Amino acid sequence: MTKYEIMFIVKATMEEDAIKKASEDLQKLINNKTSKVIDFKEMGRKKLAYPIKKEVSGYYFVMNVEADRETIAEFDRKVSINENILRHLIIKVEGE
User: Fold this and answer.
1) DSSP-derived 3-state class of residue 11
2) Is residue 65 part of a domain?
3) How much is the pTM?
């Protein structure tokens, strides 16, 4: 199992319940038979350095996961087509 750190930004113009549901749905994508979320942090609302899709702020989330390549590829695909996710970043964690 490979360890990854995933950061994603959700639109801040959404209602709080919708933001919470979006983050829970992304956790569910990772939590399956072969992969799991180790740590999940809500970083809160922050101002963006520059506007993204006409948004000036977003809710930041960071999660550490143990996952296989197929799960990460599926997560990347789903997040890329999700209109409510402004940006995401997946980093492979080396040698812990």
Assistant:
1) strand
2) no
3) 0.91
